[in-house]
Amino acid sequence: MRLGNKSICIVASTLPADFMASQVDALDIDKIVVMSRNLERSYSVFKVKYPTIKLVCAPRGFMVQPLYLFGQLFWAKLRGHSVVFFHECCLPLLDLLLMLIKPSGLYLPQVTMYGFNEISHEEFPKHSYFRLIVILGLVEYFRFYKAPSIGGGPSEYAISVKGYPEKINAKDVAFSRKIISESNERFNRVSVTRKILFVAGKSFIADEYLISYYSILINIAHSRGYICLIKDHPNPIYRLNLYADCATSYDPLVPSELLDRDFYLVVGVSSTSLLAYGERSVSLLKLMPEMTSEDRVLCIDHFEKAAPGNKIKYIESIDDFEKLL
Fold first, then answer.
1. pLDDT tens, residue by residue, 59-76
2. What is the fold, at CATH topology level, of the domain defined by 7-110+160-182?
3. 195-324 domain in CATH 3.60.20.10?
4. For residues 168-184, b (16+ Cβ closer than 10 Å) or e, as one string?
5. 3-state secondary structure of 245
6. Closest Cα partner for 3 from 36, 32, 34, 25?
7. DSSP code per residue over 37-61
8. Backbone angles phi, psi at 168, to 5 degrees
9. Fewest beta carbons within 10 Å, which of 13, 209, 238, 251?
10. Nearest CA among 127, 176, 130 for reference residue 23
11. What is the pTM assigned to this prediction?
12. Distance between CA atoms of residues 241 and 252, nearest Å
């Protein structure tokens, strides 16, 4: 994949980091626009590796942010640059501006909306951008979603446009996953290192159960002489706040995809980052009887839709984990 011109990437989470890192030259990235200060800190690691890339943060504010993004998209169009976006979290403001300005670009979704339930617009919370879509008479061009509650927190809502202008080359999730898989193939093998990465974050069971399972596995790995490392969720809303005396914690804002890849195992529950480590990935989805079968199937299906034929190992007991060490 090669664009043939410079690009500006717009990101709303850390999920695209792996793809962007693997395609820096192909995308000819000139600038990365992040949507929050936390993301600016997350992608500063990216900036260290690629110092020629500009990293900027979109300002907050219902009036200021649209004007800022309008300027970025309009300037990219004037300069003949491509707008590359990933929309992993849905961003209706960007959708509206793309429909208005119609720049050339590339849409590379990193995850599907499979874990969300589509709802009618009447059921959607009446926040600012929803009201704007209604006022503009554009409701029919969007889909509205509600996600199941995770870790006892409030449900998340999202708005996604049904289609983009013809100058936007829209791909599907499989496209990105195939490129990432090919790029990371040399890493996806059993390593001789003694490091194990535990990718933490809230899930569909209570935090105390999750922390208990992680703690047991960390203590077992440490007792076998492994170096245990913890990487919590970059979004504070979904952070598990996992801590262990015998483990070292990474800054949660640093994307796990941008860490060194030299891990013997990568252990998590339903984190999409498990898809980056091939046979070294271990999921706890089948280990926890506290999770409902419906939620478990939903998570596994999410992995399969994002990367069909992935090699994630699903352990069903503590003994299964010990056999991997």
1. 988 789 999 999 999 999
2. Rossmann fold (3.40.50)
3. no
4. beeeebeebbebbbeeb
5. coil
6. 25
7. HHHHHHHHHHHHH-TTSEEEEPPPS
8. -95, 120
9. 251
10. 176
11. 0.74
12. 9
